[in-house]
Amino acid sequence: MDGDRRYPGPQVCREHRGHSRRCTGAVLMISKVGVIGAGSMGTAIAQSISRRAGEVIVFGRRQAVVDSINRDNCNSRYFPGLRLNPNIRARLMGDRLDVVDCAAVVIAVPSSEVRSIVSAAHEDLAGKFLVTVAKGLEYPSLKTMSEIIRDETGNPNMACFSGPTFADEIAYGHIAGATIGAGGDPSLRATISDLFGEFILDFSDDIRAVELCGVLKNVYAIGTGMWDSVYSNHNEHYTFLNMCYKEMCTFLRAISLDEGIFTKFCCFGDFNLTANVDKSRNRTLGLMVGKKIVKTPYLESGVTFEGSRSVKGIIELAENHDIDMPIARFVYDVLSGNNNVRESVDGLIRKAP
Ligand SMILES: NC(=O)C1=CN([C@@H]2O[C@H](COP(=O)(O)OP(=O)(O)OC[C@H]3O[C@@H](n4cnc5c(N)ncnc54)[C@H](O)[C@@H]3O)[C@@H](O)[C@H]2O)C=CC1
Ligand SMILES: O=C(CO)COP(=O)(O)O
């Protein structure tokens, strides 16, 4: 695809008051932003932000990807057909990260990698405005990404970005909504609204609840894939989808401080996107396991299946709140090879709420 024809270069932005709307105006010159992770989401976020910032530095661990971005304005591994904006530069990941003059740093690596990366670079990241897009839960600590990052850097200025946001569609500039989980500091919201001004944004003060929505929806995407590998009718699909959403809302009512979380992009939007669309890696994993196309070595496939890594933690977190999560347990049991899908699905139907 041709270069990003919409790239007008950084321009002055009108004040973005941070309420839920797509910033259609030109953009504020945000000096420099760092993105940790040169995978699909890191590259996509870099492309979006590069239309609003002076420069975006992407930190990747593969020299070939770094070279491809710097030499050809292209991430040949993830988006071979997309010309990246010229103000995106790549650097090879090291323990230390040269983010000295970055106004903000986005963390876009798989959740399993966040603690090691942030711990190694904690001195560089301390005091920075940090945004995590990773959708995972650390085990056995049961900590979310922002909790890990705060552990390692002590940063109070933290936010998360989560919603129905397939990376490829972001990279090609399609409309997407996302929830910003951040403390109530107005200046923080203004900064993040400028950074992610291409998105339709809603906000929540409960960053942990926003992050847990992203974790839960991956689990239910796997579960829906498994269910759909057995039942192929519309009634059956949407009946199970409703069962999943009911279980997810039961969990959120127990842990969320934000009573409006249920209708935010991180919750209803991302839950439906990932559970219903085959582009989702988590849903695809559920379909493949359900059809016995793949067995447990999928974790060595190199594909980022966040839901399979976080389902055990979600079950334990729920137990800590005396919440029963039969569908999350169904997903865990099948992924663990304990039962086959049809037996487990029939069991779910008998116990349906
Ligand atoms: N791909 C998508 O559509 C979306 C992904 N996300 C989230 O973004 C996070 C990142 O996932 P994706 O970009 O999708 O995965 P990906 O598999 O496309 O890319 C992951 C990248 O992280 C890099 N990486 C892994 N370990 C690393 C390390 N120790 N140091 C430096 N780089 C390392 C890999 O080399 C790869 O480039 C996940 O938590 C995912 O849930 C969120 C929304 C959408
Ligand atoms: O989080 C995502 C979309 O919002 C990406 O979903 P998958 O990780 O299932 O591909």
Automatic annotation (TrEMBL):
Q: What range(s) does the Glycerol-3-phosphate dehydrogenase NAD-dependent C-terminal domain occupy?
A: 206-345
- Which SUPFAM superfamilies did the record assign? 6-phosphogluconate dehydrogenase C-terminal domain-like, NAD(P)-binding Rossmann-fold domains
| Domain Glycerol-3-phosphate dehydrogenase NAD-dependent N-terminal residues, every copy | 32-182
Keyword match Transit peptide: no
Q: Where are the transmembrane segments?
A: none
Q: Which UniProt keywords apply?
A: NAD, Oxidoreductase
Recorded family membership: Belongs to the NAD-dependent glycerol-3-phosphate dehydrogenase family.
Q: What is this protein called?
A: Glycerol-3-phosphate dehydrogenase
Organism annotation: Methanoculleus methanifontis
